[in-house]
């Protein structure tokens, strides 16, 4: 639900309902602020646990941001590259769910989305407060995405969940603080005590290379 809109900002909000409590029996509020500047998009998340909750509130969060690849429709995938500075890849089990094991990242340097599996997500992490994905058309536009949170999960979690299709021409870096199926697996979970709040900011910076 949009609760506040201006020419450069919009605030979205979500809170529990009788229906959500059938599946997630905790009170919460999620506020998401989008701020647009000349060359930057900032996304601020605020998660608030209801003071009336009877226990700590487990959660994780992710954003399925997706970009055309390449940015310029006149180009081809040969003109579109990306880099990611995450240090580890999170292993997945036979159901493609994170199992908690970490292996060194296989994405050092510059890469093409043609090197990624077709429409199968891969999760990466730095286990730190700093991680970034940078995408660019070699002849013009560069987009950098980073995020920072006030706290992080105790167990393995995804900084970025890469999802791409060379066939259909898109790339989803998906900034995360969490993991798929985290409520069941326990990996990537954050916990909020009653009445407390958690914040995270995603920053997308755009610039011309030429």
What is the terminal separation in angstroms?
Answer: 39 Å
Helix count equals 1
Mean pLDDT: 91
Percent helix among the residues? under 10%
Global geometry = globular
Q: How would you classify the helix and strand content by structural class?
A: mainly beta
Please report the total strand number as a whole number: 18
pLDDT < 50 stretches: none
- Round the Cα radius of gyration to an integer and report it: 18 Å
**SSE run:** EEEEEEEEEEEEEEEEHEE
Largest sheet: 8 strands, antiparallel
Strand order of the largest sheet: 1-2-3-4-18-13-12-8
Q: Please report which band the strand proportion falls in: under 5%, 5-15%, 15-25%, 25-35%, 35-45% or over 45%.
A: over 45%
Overall description:
This protein is mainly β. 2% of the residues lie in helices and 49% in strands. It has one helix and 18 strands. The strands form three sheets. Strands 1-2-3-4-18-13-12-8 form an eight-stranded antiparallel β-sheet, with no helix packed on it. Strands 6, 7, 9, 10, 11, 14, 15 and 16 form an eight-stranded antiparallel β-sheet that branches. The protein has a two-stranded antiparallel sheet with strand order 5-17. The N and C termini lie far apart (39 Å). The model has no long low-confidence stretch (mean pLDDT 91).
């Amino acid at each position: 639900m949009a609760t506040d809109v201006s020419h450069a900002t919009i605030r979205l909000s979500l809170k529990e309902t009788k229906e959500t409590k059938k599946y997630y029996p905790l009170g919460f509020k999620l506020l998401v602020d989008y701020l647009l500047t000349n060359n930057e998009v900032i996304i601020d998340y605020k998660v608030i646990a209801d003071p009336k909750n009877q226990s700590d509130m487990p959660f994780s969060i992710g954003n399925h941001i997706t970009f055309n690849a390449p940015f310029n429709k006149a180009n081809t995938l040969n003109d579109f590259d990306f880099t990611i500075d995450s240090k580890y890849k999170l292993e997945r089990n036979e159901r493609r769910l994170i199992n908690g094991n970490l292996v060194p990242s296989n994405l050092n340097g510059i890469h093409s989305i043609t090197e990624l599996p077709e429409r199968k997500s891969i999760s990466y992490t730095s286990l730190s407060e700093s991680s970034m994905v940078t995408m660019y058309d070699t002849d013009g536009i560069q987009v950098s995405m980073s995020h920072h949170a006030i706290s992080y999960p105790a167990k393995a979690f995804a900084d970025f969940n890469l999802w791409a299709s060379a066939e259909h021409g898109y790339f989803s870096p998906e900034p995360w603080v969490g993991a798929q199926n985290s409520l069941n697996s326990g990996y990537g979970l954050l916990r909020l005590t009653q009445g407390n709040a958690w914040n995270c900011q995603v920053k997308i910076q755009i610039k011309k290379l030429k």
